[in-house]
């Protein structure tokens, strides 16, 4: 029998979700079979799959040690270089500045050297995360940025923080995210609303009419900061959070993002690449404000975190404006 004590990292989640994360290598349906057969007890009592584990709960698993070891293989910590900058950190959250070219999560092309694994390396070296001890929970990102978009990404360092942050993202208006980008043409102040779908064949998002099947609403606010020679530096706020929203929405308005190879202006991008040796979208997530945080995140109310322009983006802005 295996006995586990619920700590603050693992509290406030359903027992089935906790066990599925604790035993990621178990056969499909194994956890639910254990719950049905009374092979799982909390504080000596059988519980249903929707029971919410609390701090101090004692979870008993009637499972042989060798089987537990086989099913609960810990998260691998890689010795990775730390390419991100820490913007803010406390015991619950970590806000980092992601560079261009780094994925947030693994994909089929890059499984190891991604931002999330670098964060685990960082926390492990600080002694704040031990996958052997913290079975069932892994610090994770609350949102993502495209590989070639730089800027701020929030990580939850404990379960309650991660849950509250994820819920805040879903509800909108709780965290105000602002981006900086350079677009073609002189773009005025704009409150943009539209509809978008994912074009599976083309591998990108497509603007459609309101009555298009499965159309998703998108809402984008644009505030111009500076004008150059047929270019604008703009601040963009997302009301909704659709995939590639800024890039597809601004392009649909005739103001494509500089360097955007998927939705941008091919000829303009070619000129930019030649002039600045730059070959990806110029988009930076530069500001996060906790406008209406709740739960364990209330202490962050009205706090703003920023990432100033740097590198190639700053070089281009300084030259154009």
Automatic annotation (TrEMBL):
Name of the protein described by the UniProt record: Pseudouridine synthase
Cited Pfam families: PseudoU_synth_2 (PF00849), S4 (PF01479)
Entry-linked InterPro entries: PsdUridine_synth_cat_dom_sf, PsdUridine_synth_RluC/D, PsdUridine_synth_RsuA/RluA, RluA_PseudoU_synthase, S4_RNA-bd, S4_RNA-bd_sf
UniProt record, GO biological process: enzyme-directed rRNA pseudouridine synthesis
NCBIfam families linked to this entry: rluA_subfam
EC numbers for this chain: 5.4.99.-
Family the entry assigns: Belongs to the pseudouridine synthase RluA family.
The UniProt record lists the keyword Magnesium: no
Keyword tags: Isomerase, RNA-binding
Function according to Swiss-Prot or TrEMBL: Responsible for synthesis of pseudouridine from uracil.
GO molecular function: RNA binding; rRNA pseudouridine synthase activity
Superkingdom of the source species: Bacteria
Upper taxonomic lineage: Bacteria, Bacillati, Bacillota, Erysipelotrichia, Erysipelotrichales
RNA-binding S4 domain boundaries: 13-73
SMART domains associated with the record: S4
């Amino acid at each position: 029998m295996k006995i586990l004590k619920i700590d603050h990292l693992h509290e406030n989640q359903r027992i089935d979700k906790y066990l599925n994360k604790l035993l990621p290598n178990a056969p499909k349906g194994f956890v639910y079979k254990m719950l049905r057969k009374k092979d799982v007890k909390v504080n000596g009592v059988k519980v249903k799959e929707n029971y919410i584990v609390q701090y101090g709960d004692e979870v008993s698993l009637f499972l042989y040690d060798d089987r537990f070891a086989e099913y609960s293989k810990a998260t691998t910590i890689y010795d990775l270089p730390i390419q991100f900058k820490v913007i803010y950190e406390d015991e619950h959250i970590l806000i980092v500045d992601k560079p261009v070219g780094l994925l947030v999560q693994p994909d089929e092309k890059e499984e190891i050297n991604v931002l999330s694994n670098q964060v685990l390396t960082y926390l492990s070296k600080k002694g704040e995360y031990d996958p052997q001890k913290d079975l069932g929970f892994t610090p994770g990102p609350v949102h993502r940025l495209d590989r070639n978009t730089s800027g701020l990404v929030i990580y939850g360092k404990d379960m309650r923080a991660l849950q509250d942050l994820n819920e805040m993202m879903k509800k909108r208006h709780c965290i105000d995210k602002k981006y900086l980008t350079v677009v073609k043409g002189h773009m005025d102040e704009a409150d943009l609303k539209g509809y978008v779908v994912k074009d599976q064949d083309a591998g990108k998002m497509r603007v459609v009419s309101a009555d298009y099947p499965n159309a998703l609403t998108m809402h984008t606010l644009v505030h111009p900061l500076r004008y150059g020679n047929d270019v604008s530096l703009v601040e963009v706020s997302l009301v909704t959070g659709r995939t590639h929203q800024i890039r597809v929405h601004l392009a649909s308005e005739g103001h494509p993002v500089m360097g955007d190879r998927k939705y941008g202006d091919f000829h303009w991008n070619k000129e930019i690449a030649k002039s600045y040796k730059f070959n990806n979208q110029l988009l930076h997530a530069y500001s996060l404000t906790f406008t209406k945080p709740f739960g364990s995140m209330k202490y962050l109310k009205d706090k703003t975190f920023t990432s100033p322009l740097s590198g190639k983006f700053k070089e281009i802005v300084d030259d154009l404006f």
